[in-house]
Design goal:
With 357 residues, the chain is α/β, with parallel strands linked by helices. The protein contains 17 helices and twelve strands. Among the domains are: 77 residues, Arc Repressor Mutant, subunit A (Orthogonal Bundle); 171 residues, 3-Layer(aba) Sandwich (Rossmann fold). InterPro entries: COMT-like, COMT_C, COMT_dimerisation, SAM-dependent_MTases_sf, WH-like_DNA-bd_sf, WH_DNA-bd_sf.
Length: 357
């Protein structure tokens, strides 16, 4: 055999783009790599630390475990063991027996950090519901259908809306994602060509607020459920754009307000299978006719993206990320023609459709 040739069993894939040669790697190295890939304890320990807001309670000080347990209403012994485990992974730093301080890594768990990951890790928040839902991933893979609803007795969004705190946390999560991606969304598309933007399923209004602040000529309408409308209205007022923004209660599966020249749907279509996704786009097409546009902002399947695991989260709901060709076909089903695709560095793409006559 050619010395440079390698067969499939000569390599063990341990992470995307990385291969370990069986001939040059010890069993211990492979076991360590497999441990990194299969460990559930550390990811959940991170989530528990975020949910208890340990990094917030530590702040810029060194804090005893007993104080942290009292502030979080948790058991001192178990809090100490949690911190000891995370300190071994460099998340927190032990500074004397039973005393811990933050590291650069744990500071990202603080809610006041400009690039906080807290909303993504809070077990009691919206993303926490996704994480808990991963127990149904086997069912999703086997069936290709929504596995969350049959496993938990109600849909993911019904679960969110049943608890005000959880729903608000999900809105915060989406607002955090918007904050990360807003600058490139503003740059990727020529928003000066629109006068009135309707943000469909716009949540707490973070995206629409950002658009209106960046473009004083724009007017905006947000459509979402009553809880989101209340939050968005408050955001518009605080941001000083309330004179140009309106939030109305409605469903993306029902007739949408007409009159906007651009209907924006961000991070929404991916949560639905083809039938539901087509229904959403069909409602947008109806409202946009005769001369309006529909812009879908999502990650494209197969492209580098900010959250590589997102597609499997969507699989839990029966949804999926889509390729450009799949979006083109989906738009055609909904009465839309794909005119342009505007990529961004994070992997978000703005897909611009026009409504067919």
């Amino acid at each position: 055999m050619n010395r440079g040739a390698r067969t499939t069993h000569d390599n063990i894939t341990v992470s995307k783009g990385a291969h370990v040669s069986a001939s040059s790697t010890t069993t211990t190295d492979v076991a360590r790599q497999l441990g990194v890939l299969t460990d559930l304890v550390t990811p959940w320990a991170m989530r528990v630390a975020a949910t208890l807001r340990l990094a917030d309670h530590i702040g810029d000080a060194t804090v005893p475990v007993e104080d942290l347990a009292r502030r979080t209403d948790a058991a001192p012994d178990t809090v100490g063991r949690l911190l000891e485990h995370l300190a071994a992974h460099g998340v927190f730093e032990q500074d004397g027996p039973g005393r811990y301080r933050n590291t650069e890594l744990s500071r990202r768990l603080r809610r006041d950090h400009p690039m906080t990951v807290h909303p993504w890790l809070d077990v009691e928040g919206g993303m926490g519901q996704y994480d808990i839902g991963l127990s149904a991933l086997l069912t999703a893979v086997r069936t290709g259908q929504d596995a969350y609803t049959p496993t938990f007795g109600r849909s993911f969004f019904e679960h969110l809306n049943s608890d005000a705190r959880r729903g608000a946390a999900y809105d915060e999560l989406m607002a955090t994602l918007t904050a990360w991606t807003l600058p490139e969304i503003l740059q990727a598309y020529d928003w000066t060509t629109a006068g009135h933007v309707a943000d469909i399923a716009g949540g707490s209004g973070a995206l629409l607020t950002g658009l209106l602040q960046a473009h004083p000529h724009l007017r905006g309408t947000l459509v979402d459920d009553a809880r989101a409308v209340s939050t968005a209205t408050e955001r518009f007022t605080k941001a000083g754009v309330a004179d140009r923004a309106t939030a109305v209660a409605g469903s993306m599966f029902e007739p949408l307000p007409r009159g906007a020249d651009l209907y924006l749907v961000k991070s929404t279509v991916m949560g639905w299978g083809d039938e539901g996704a087509a229904d959403i786009l069909r409602r947008c097409a109806e409202a946009a006719r005769p001369a309006g546009r529909v812009v879908v902002a999502e990650f494209l399947r197969g492209a580098p993206r900010l959250v590589p695991s997102l597609d499997l989260y969507m699989a839990l709901l029966g949804g999926k990320e889509r390729t450009e060709d799949e979006f083109r076909a989906l738009g055609r089903t909904a009465g839309l023609t794909l005119r342009a695709v505007h990529p961004t560095p994070s992997g978000y793409c703005l897909l611009e459709f026009t409504a067919d006559a």
